[in-house]
Write a structure and sequence with these properties.
Layout: H1 2-13, H2 21-25, E1 36-42, E2 48-54, E3 60-66, H3 71-87, H4 91-97, E4 106-109, H5 122-125, E5 131-134, E6 137-143, E7 147-152, E8 166-170, E9 178-185, E10 199-202, E11 222-227, E12 239-242, H6 257-260, E13 271-278, H7 282-285, H8 288-294, H9 305-318, E14 323-330, H10 331-344, E15 347-353, E16 359-366, E17 370-375, E18 378-379, H11 380-386, H12 391-397, H13 401-409, E19 413-421, E20 428-435, H14 443-464, E21 470-475, H15 483-490, E22 492-493, E23 513-514, E24 519-521, E25 530-532, E26 535-537, E27 540-545, E28 549-554, H16 560-563, E29 581-587
Parallel strand pairs: 1-6, 13-14, 20-21
Antiparallel strand pairs: 1-2, 2-3, 4-5, 5-6, 7-8, 9-10, 9-11, 11-12, 13-29, 14-16, 15-16, 17-19, 18-19, 19-20, 21-27, 22-23, 24-27, 25-26, 28-29
Helix pairs in contact: 9-10, 14-15
C-alpha cells in the first residue's frame, strides 16, 4: 500500500510532460519552470496540514503535521524522515554502503527570501510562493492548488452518445478545468506482434468536458487528460484516465431522436422547460421478475445499467431542460452517472432517497436560470404521523387503522425545492417531485398520499414563501380515470368514490378530501406514459398552478410505432418502461 501511495504521489508531483506544461501550470502561474514544487494542503477546518514533494532521486516525501505546531518541528521531521529510513538498513547493507549521510539541512524561506522563524505555526508559515530548501534542492510552495480527487470514465461507451466523466475537485471547480481527449491509435499491421504497442492521438474537437465519439471511434479506447483549475485561472497538476473498453456501435434510431428536434436550444427568457420521467431503477430492472415476466421482450444487454445510462444521458441532455424531475433514481446512479453528466450540461442536481430504499427522487435545475433558496423534502408516511399540519387528516383516518397501517408501510417521498429566477429575483417557483404507491389496488393509499403532499406544498407556497406558484411532477401511478387524478385536478374527492374501497372491504375507508390549489395537467392526458408487455396507461403528470403559469408548448410523445418497434418498453432504443413528459411553461 505504501508503495502505491508513493507512486501516486510521485506521479502528482513529478515534472509535467512538456506537451502539457502550459495547460498544467496555467497561463498565469507564478511557479518558475526551473524549480520543483512542494504542494501544501491546509484547510482551516482540519487540524493537520500536509506537505508533499519529490526528491531528486525520485522518492516521494509526504508529511502531515498539526497546523498549530511550530514550523521548526515540521522541518526537523522532514529532515529526519529520509535519514531514519536509511538508518534502518540491515547491518550488512550498512557495511556495504557505509554509514548513512547526515540529515540534510531543511529550511523554509518566505516569498521575499527571508528565513521563516522556527516558532511560527505551520498554518502561517507555509504560504503560497514560499521556498522549501532540502539540502541543495529548492521547492516552490503551492498552497492549496486546484486538485482532482476523483476522475473516472463510464465503463460503457457508445458511438453517438455523450461521454461525461465523473470528476471531483478540491480548491477548484469542474467548470474551470481544462480537458483534452485522446483516441487510441492502433499499431500498424506490419509491426510484429512483439513490438506492437498502441499509442494515443488527440481526438478532433476533444477539448470540452463532454465528448461524443463518432462511428470512427468504434473499436478504439479513449483517454482523457484533465487539468484542475479554479475561477482565478490557477491550475493544478493534470491527471489522465483511460477507458476500460473500446467505443461500441450505438443502437441506431432512438425513441427520443425526433423529440430532440423540438428542444435543440434552451427555452428563452420567461419560459421554463420542464421534464418529468421515471427512469426505471436498476434494482428493479435487474430482478428475475423483470427479466422473465415484466420485460421478457427486452434484450438482456439493454437492461444493463451502463447501457441504459448511455441512452438516458443522451436523451436528457437533448431536451435542454430548465427543470428535470426524475423518479426511481438509484443512489449510485445519481452520484456517479446522472449527477456528473447533467452537471456538465449546466444543471444542478438534488437527491432525496426513499426511506429504507436504495432509490429515490432527483430534481435538476438550470444553474444560469435558477438559484436554490431552500428544500422542504418529506417522507409522506412520517409527515402524516408526526406533522401537526396533517392532524385533521390523522383524526379522520383514526377509525380505519388498517388503512393507516398500510400508509405507514409505504416509503413514498415528496421532494420540494424552492427556486429563484436569476433574471428576475422577484419570481420564485416551488418544484415538487413525487412517486406515489404503485399497487393497482392501492387507490385509497394514493389518495391519502396525494392529500399529504398537497397540504405540504400549500404550506410551503402560502406560509413559507407566500404567493409562490408551483409545479408538481411525478409518477402518480394513477390514470386520468382514477380518484387521485380527479382529486388533484378538481380540488375534491367524495367519500363514496370507488377508489376508497380499492383495497377490499377490510381495508377501505370513507372520507372526503379537498384542497384549495388550482392545478391542471400541463401535458393533458396522453394515451400512455408507461408501456410494458401487460399494461399501458398514463401514470405520469406535470401539474401546474393555473393562476400563475400556462403552457407554451407540449413536446410530442414518440409515435406508437416508435414505442412498439421492439414490442414494448424498455428496449434497445429506450432506457425506461416510462416515457418522459416535456413541456414549455410561461409565466402569466
Amino acid at each position: 500500500m505504501r508503495r502505491l501511495l508513493c507512486g501516486a504521489l510521485r506521479a502528482f508531483l513529478s515534472p509535467r510532460p512538456r506537451r502539457l506544461r502550459l495547460g498544467a501550470r496555467g497561463p498565469h502561474s507564478r511557479v518558475p519552470p526551473a524549480m520543483e514544487r512542494a504542494v501544501v494542503r491546509c484547510v482551516p477546518a482540519e487540524p493537520k496540514l500536509s506537505v508533499s514533494f519529490v526528491l531528486a532521486d525520485g522518492s516521494a516525501r509526504h508529511v502531515q503535521r498539526d497546523q498549530a505546531e511550530p514550523l521548526g518541528r515540521a522541518l526537523a521531521r522532514i529532515a529526519n524522515k529520509g535519514h531514519a529510513k536509511a538508518a534502518k538498513k540491515s547491518k550488512k547493507a550498512r557495511a556495504e554502503s557505509g554509514p548513512p549521510p547526515p540529515p540534510p539541512i531543511v529550511r523554509l524561506f518566505s516569498q521575499d527570501g527571508q528565513a521563516v522563524a522556527d516558532d511560527v505555526p505551520n498554518a502561517e508559515a507555509w504560504q503560497e510562493g514560499a521556498v522549501l530548501q532540502v539540502g541543495e534542492a529548492r521547492y516552490r510552495v503551492e498552497r492549496n492548488p486546484p486538485a482532482l480527487t476523483e476522475l473516472q470514465l463510464p465503463r460503457s461507451l457508445l458511438a453517438g452518445f455523450p461521454v461525461c466523466p465523473k470528476l471531483r475537485t478540491e480548491f477548484g471547480a469542474p467548470a474551470d478545468c481544462l480537458f483534452r481527449w485522446y483516441q487510441e491509435q492502433k499499431a500498424e499491421p506490419a509491426v510484429s506482434a512483439a513490438a506492437a504497442t498502441a499509442g494515443w492521438v488527440e481526438a478532433s474537437g476533444g477539448t470540452e468536458r463532454v465528448f461524443t465519439p463518432s462511428n470512427g471511434h468504434i473499436g478504439l479506447r479513449l483517454k482523457l487528460v484533465c487539468t484542475p483549475g479554479n475561477g482565478l485561472r490557477r491550475y493544478g497538476q493534470a491527471r489522465e484516465v483511460e477507458s476500460s473498453g473500446p467505443v461500441e456501435a450505438g443502437p441506431g434510431a432512438c425513441t427520443f431522436d425526433a423529440r430532440h428536434l423540438y428542444t435543440k436550444r434552451v427555452a428563452g427568457p420567461g419560459l421554463i422547460r420542464t421534464v418529468t420521467y421515471n427512469i426505471l431503477a436498476d434494482i428493479y430492472a435487474q430482478t428475475e421478475l423483470s427479466r422473465t415476466v415484466l420485460y421478457p421482450y427486452c434484450a438482456p444487454y439493454s437492461l444493463e445499467l451502463d447501457y441504459r445510462q448511455n441512452l438516458l444521458k443522451k436523451e436528457l441532455a437533448g431536451y435542454s431542460a430548465d427543470l428535470i424531475c426524475l423518479q426511481e433514481v438509484d443512489r449510485s446512479v445519481f452520484a456517479d452517472s446522472l449527477g456528473p453528466a447533467l452537471d456538465a450540461f449546466g444543471l444542478e442536481g438534488l437527491f432525496r432517497l426513499k426511506e429504507k430504499q436504495h432509490e429515490g427522487l432527483a430534481t435538476f435545475y438550470r444553474r444560469d436560470k435558477f438559484s436554490l433558496l431552500s428544500q422542504h423534502d418529506i417522507a409522506l408516511n412520517q409527515a402524516l404521523l408526526e406533522d401537526p399540519l396533517h392532524g385533521e387528516l390523522r383524526d379522520r383516518l383514526a377509525p380505519y387503522p388498517q388503512v393507516q397501517e398500510k400508509v405507514q408501510q409505504r416509503s413514498s417521498a415528496l421532494q420540494v425545492s424552492v427556486l429563484q429566477c436569476r433574471s428576475d429575483p422577484s419570481r420564485k417557483i416551488c418544484v415538487a417531485n413525487t412517486h406515489l404507491y404503485w399497487h393497482p389496488k392501492g387507490g385509497n393509499i394514493r389518495l391519502i398520499q396525494a392529500a399529504v403532499a398537497l397540504s405540504h406544498i400549500r404550506h410551503v407556497t402560502h406560509n413559507v414563501y407566500p404567493d409562490t406558484p408551483m409545479i408538481f411532477c411525478g409518477d402518480f401511478n394513477g390514470t386520468p380515470s382514477t380518484g387521485m387524478y380527479s382529486f388533484i385536478s378538481n380540488g375534491s374527492i367524495a367519500e363514496d368514490h370507488e377508489d376508497w374501497g380499492s383495497n377490499g372491504e377490510e381495508k377501505q375507508c370513507r372520507i372526503s378530501l379537498t384542497h384549495p390549489l388550482k392545478l391542471k395537467s400541463a401535458c393533458g392526458e396522453p394515451a400512455y406514459t408507461n408501456y410494458v408487455g401487460g399494461f399501458h396507461g398514463c401514470l405520469d403528470y406535470i401539474f401546474i398552478d393555473v393562476n400563475a403559469l400556462e403552457v407554451e408548448q407540449v413536446i410530442p410523445l414518440p409515435s406508437h410505432e416508435e414505442v412498439t418497434t421492439h414490442q414494448a418498453l424498455p428496449s434497445v432504443s429506450h432506457p425506461s418502461d416510462h416515457i418522459a413528459l416535456i413541456c414549455d411553461l410561461k409565466w402569466k
